[in-house]
Design brief:
This protein is of the alpha/beta class and about 400 residues long. Helix content is about 40%, strand content about 10%. It is elongated and about 100 Å long. The termini are far apart. It binds guanosine-5'-triphosphate (GTP) and magnesium ion. The site of guanosine-5'-triphosphate (GTP) has 17 residues, from strand 3 and helix 7. It is a single-pass membrane protein.
Length: about 400
């Protein structure tokens, strides 16, 4: 028979398969290449926070005559702490270095103590375009702080009474690149509550018809302006780098959390503090699931919330995965816990709470969830679908980056 025209696409002779070992080697090679590129991708995708700019390390407050102050330098415990840690690292003997666990914490933060507190409590308020919601929240905060902890500059006697090392309080409003009048509103609030002993009270979510208002001493409300928007995580972390308090709480500017539950957070934190004084108290809305506030939310929002909880359970280490409400914007840290958490923060967006809790867990800091009052407040800037997708992605990147050593505590 004549040879067919062209070439034969069906092999007429049996084709010999490569040996199994060669297939396995090829497969292994493919996986290694995939792993390599995934690792490179993770390095590129994992967020690295930008360094604070010069003006962001300064604050403005209201002078005794009611005028806004010039920009003043913010005290910054983390700069001093980092410098001391670096010196300790240099001094470390090579032998000691070898004994460190792989990917370990470098010089243990406990070797480098955080500078002493100046005040009993620091309240960090991240605020992004909050001109409408901020004043009500500040009103409730000041009212409670004033009644509970005395004037912002309460003296040593007050500290002794409380068994604390410092007395008084401060509020750090961190405007996150706001483009509205957030900063002016904060300063207006500070001015009216500083100049008058009995300022006109502003309604808040928990006090729609307030009858009294707290007076604030000069310098107790400090306003920090980030030059460009970073996200809630960036704003909270920035504020906490400059906190002077023995306890540091962050609270959302919308006043959704009942500020007067702060006392519960402080007692909760004290109850879990270790011998170094480290502890974290997490405001929790878990007891409200099924309540009107949560049921009233859209079905989509509740579905996304449950999916996110499932992801959290699967992806986070043990203690963090047991926290029922990781996202509540009302969390308190004792000062000695800060150096184990704040210097190692990377997340700038909504997922930052999870990183804080994971870092606390990595450092064996005990955490306690405390049930708090919470109200849905209109004006949320959370985009339910996009921000949920962003959070799921952020969580995956965050978990992988910490697990694979892209992020370290060196
Ligand atoms: N949306 C948004 N909020 C920011 C940002 N930076 C800081 N924040 C503050 O983060 C806090 C929480 O914002 P909300 O819009 O109330 O979002 P949320 O509390 O997580 O969501 P809700 O449960 O819907 O209220 C507020 O104090 C915001 O001002 C940012 O870049 N975007
Ligand atoms: Mg809110």
């Amino acid at each position: 028979m004549d040879k067919p025209y062209g070439f034969n696409s069906f092999p007429t002779e049996p084709v010999e398969m490569p040996p199994t070992w060669a297939l396995l080697v090829a497969l292994g090679f493919c996986f290694a290449a995939l792993g390599f590129w995934a690792y490179i991708g993770l390095n590129l995708a994992a967020p690295v926070p930008r360094a604070p700019r010069r003006s962001e390390k300064q604050y403005v407050t209201v002078l005794p005559d009611g005028q806004p102050s010039e920009r003043q330098e913010l005290p910054c415990w983390i700069d001093k702490w980092s410098a001391e840690k670096e010196v300790a690292k240099q001094k470390q003997k090579p032998k000691q270095k070898q004994r460190e666990p792989a990917g370990g914490a470098g010089v243990a933060p406990s070797d480098t103590a955080i500078e002493a507190a100046d005040v009993f409590l620091s309240v960090v308020v991240p605020a992004y375009n909050e001109e409408d919601r901020l004043s009500g929240m500040l009103e409730e905060a000041v009212d409670y702080l004033q009644a509970e902890y005395g004037g912002a500059h309460a003296g040593e006697q007050d500290a002794e009474k409380r068994g604390a090392t410092a007395a008084g309080w401060e509020i750090l409003v961190v405007s996150d690149g706001s483009t509205d009048a957030t900063v002016e509103k904060a300063l207006d609030f500070a001015r009216s509550h500083q100049l008058s002993q009995h300022p006109v009270p502003t309604p808040g979510p928990w006090t729609p018809n307030p009858t009294r208002s707290g007076h604030t001493p000069h310098g107790s409300i400090r306003v920090i302006s980030l030059e460009a928007n970073r996200g809630k995580g960036g704003a909270v972390t920035h504020g906490m780098r400059h906190a002077r308090g023995q306890y540091v709480v962050f609270a959302d500017a919308d006043g959704a959390s009942q500020f007067s539950d702060l006392g519960k957070l402080i007692s909760g934190c004290k109850s879990v503090e270790d011998k170094l004084g480290r502890g974290v108290a997490i405001g929790s809305r878990a007891h409200l699931v099924g309540s009107e506030a949560v049921v009233k939310r859209s079905k989509l929002r509740n579905f996304l919330m449950h999916s996110f909880h499932l992801l959290l359970r699967l992806m986070t280490p043990a203690a963090t995965s047991r926290i029922a409400d990781t996202q509540c914007g009302f969390k308190l840290f004792s000062r000695p816990a800060l150096p184990y958490i704040i210097p190692y923060m990377h997340s700038e967006g909504w997922i930052f709470d999870v990183e804080m809790l994971m870092l606390a867990e990595f450092a064996d800091i005990r955490m306690v969830e405390v049930a708090i009052g919470w109200k849905e407040v209109v004006g949320s800037k959370l985009n339910v679908v996009w921000d949920s997708l962003g959070m799921a992605w952020g969580l995956a990147v965050l978990r992988a980056a910490w697990a694979l050593g892209v992020y370290t505590r060196d």
